[in-house]
Fold this protein.
Amino acid sequence: MTEEKPDLELKALEGFCGTQEYHRVLGFNVTDGVDYIMRNGYSYLVTDVLALIPFKAILRQQPFLVITYSVNLETHTGGFIITDGNETLLYSQNYGYTNAKIAKELKLFLTERVLMLAGEY
């Protein structure tokens, strides 16, 4: 049996639209697309956000959140911002180092305790 290598570039990400099942992570549900992200080397991106939300009142109070991850492949830095969906910045976090190989922004939506890819909304 050969071990499958993680898809660090998340090449199959575009193939997710909708979900067939939810996966429980830190008291939230995540879709198949978010589960794919987690299984391919980026579980910390998901768990960092989900672990943060219960402790930040401004995030808990929002019915809809947009989480946008970005990575600078040249400097190996990155981070995420959380907005209310209307471009109001609610929170941001930077990573001084990341080995992420995501070549574009990654956008997730959180509503009704379900975290999903923008294309799964």
Summary: The chain has one domain: 22-120. DSSP finds two helices and seven strands in the chain.
